[in-house]
Amino acid sequence: MASGILESADKQQDPIMMSGPEPVLRVASWILLAHAGLWGIFLFRWVTFGSIGWRPFDFESALAENFAGVVPYILFGFGLVVDLILGGMLLRENEIARKGAMVRSAIFIALAAGYWFITNDFLAAITIVGLAGLILVLVTRNSAWAINYPAAFWLVVFFVMPNIIVFVISLSERGPLGTVIYPDLTTAQGFAQLFNDYGRFFSRIGDEFIYLQIFRRSFFLALGNTALCLVLGYPFAYWMARQPEKWRNVLVFLVMIPFWTNFLVRTYAWLLLLRDSGLINNVWTSTIHEQAVALSGSSNFFAWLATATEDPLPLLFNTGAVFVGLFYGYFPFVVLPLYSNLEKLDWSLLEAAADLGASGFYRFTRVLLPLSAPGLVAAGIIVFVPSLGAYVTPTILGGGKVSLLGNLLQQQFMTTRDWPFGSAIGFLMMAIMLLAILIYFRVGGEEQ
Amino acid sequence: MSKKLTVLFSLIAMFALAACGGGPGGPGGPGGSGEGDGDVVPAADDALSEELSVYNWADYIDEQVLADYEEEFGVKIIYDTYASNEDLLAKLEAGAKGYDVIVPSDYMVGIMIGLDLLAPINAEGFSNVSNMNEAFMNAPFDPGNAHCLPYQWGTTGIGYRAGNEYFDANPPTSWAAIFDPEELAKYEGDGINVLNDPRELPAAAAFYLGLDPNTEDPEELQQIQDAILAAKPFWKTFNSEDYPTSLLVPDEVVITHGWSGGVFQAYYETWDDDAEDGNWYYSVPEEGAVKWLDNMCITAASERKGTAAHFINYVLSAEAGAAITNYTYYASPNEAAREFIEPEVLEDPGIFPPPEVEAKLSWLTEVSDESVLLYDELWTAVKAGN
Fold first, then answer.
1. Nearest CA of chain B to the CA of A38: how many Å?
2. Contacts of A178 in chain B (CB under 8 A)
3. Per the domain annotation, does A170 fall within a domain?
4. pTM of the predicted model, to two decimals?
5. B365: region left, alpha or beta (phi > 0 left; psi from -120 to 50 alpha)
6. Which residues of A touch B84 (CB under 8 A)?
7. Is the ipTM of this complex over 0.85?
8. CA-CA distance, B220 to B146, in Å (whole number)?
């Protein structure tokens, strides 16, 4: 039966596979032909700039400035012809065209690099490199590369390159007016200054290690938040996982509802709840206060309550408010991974443990907890990492009085304009988070 | 195929011959009257570009001024706003194009000049410069108005809740109301806000201590830091972004270190028609205070410098200057505009301080690069302290 299905699938696929060039080559040739069309459009625009008031693209202005005269015609015309020919021939599976397309892509990558060097137009250069690289990968006929190319390109452009830039800046020095002076590695002094900004983080201001104090405060706040989220999120996720199946999805849905509102808006909502004239303090200083005053003659407790409710509770603009805000913001992030872990748990193992005489405490610590450890670690990291870099919550709910790593980072980039020091702090934070994730893979790996 | 190719090549050759050049012309196009060498002056009324992009602080202009300009000169204004000098700088430094007129504050003008982000202008070429109060021309951050012309000015002082018993008896006329722990203890529970600004707060402390608000002396900065840290436990918030609406109007605090316009905003938002008064009063402390000036400048990257200068000249006219002050309640550096400014605005000592107060105001100037580090460390210590 199973082999029959496989056979029919093969039969269905075969004709497609045989009807033309390999799919990768066919895609490559269509991309080349589309390029040819693009060249045609550029050529047409270039020729008609005099008569039609096109709004010039950046690269067109750059061309006009740097290579006036016949060069753009050669570039566009040559591109048009080459891509047309290569694309057409590649559709017929021509081996020379395949080699030609490789050469063409290599040339274009070199051209784009040169273009970027001259004009600093990063967007256009990276687009050209991306497309040329795509064709190059496709014509190598390596389908694994071709499939992974878009993701790899994305990662390189938006993750690897920015991180390299941040790292290089973190090795630099702040110049006049907040410019960045890149490290000079030709002198011993330049070499010695490389890690100045990292050193500064571990240095004193006056006679106190203030940067380390800020780090310690952020670290313990993040750790405390993670712990609280896990302690309260675990039973909640457990309870969700034990519900009848039809209710579980509804519960997951309910947990996700807060995400429909922007995080900033929800944080401001806490402001309205917690402030002196907010909802909670309103009840405290008017409703409760009035009742307490009315009853104050009857007992000492009410007399005490009457005086206590005269002033509003200090709910906002302190570390406690930041803690509440962080807990509120990240609680759903703990429940969801824990739930997805617990939901897949084999509950019969717990029943077996009970049958063998394990107490409830033993069943929890020896069976349930080890089985759900990967979920716990994942949830912990998901909360810990963003809590450590929190910026919005301490700014709004801390009233600007609670300084955390995120605020220090913002201060370096915006007010002091010391990008190298800011980058160094950013990299140190990243190192810590990387460490946390390595721990996760260790623990998670052992569980597997 | 060869036939097709021949056709293609001949087509290309034809294009090349027929067009003989092609490609976009030089950047700019119409209205590039400021493009030539030399400093920018306003373009002629009939040589304006079609569009002009103005980038200003939020809620800082009477939009009617923009509409009038659009109607009179047929220039479409693309208006956009920002919340802080740092935001503006970050955007320009990231290479944002298309902003023509910007309105940075004094110290930021110095930074932007140093970074070559502003186009040099020739102030003598602006016909309405003669309207301006001499006191606001030739400021230390931009000698000879080589890059910018004044827009609006104000002071950084103390805002306090009207009707508060303690302040009715003892109006806060000294910086001691913000920095003296003995004073602070009397109304600590009612809430005190200070500006979350690494230059304004140390400057206020410097006035309190009788020091130079632009001091670069490490010992004086240490005194300033100590004074701030001594007062910090009494302060409820550090807020310079939205304190008028989120702290003053809902009575979260009773006293604030604040910019004049912010306190006036709270005053007018709490205006009571019966009492004919608002809830928030403003005072300039007797020790002196920071005065600041926002300036209209043209970005170096602007492709419509002539039109931008023309717009700036328009805003410097007496009528436009008065309209803006009547809307924002910030003082106008425009002497000729006084006759069009509403009397109650003109007579308000918080908006237009009397001469004896004005004599005690001072600019915040950009400190040297070595001292930037000192100020940063001071601020980090202040924010991290308990």
1. 15
2. 111, 372
3. no
4. 0.82
5. beta
6. 414
7. no
8. 33
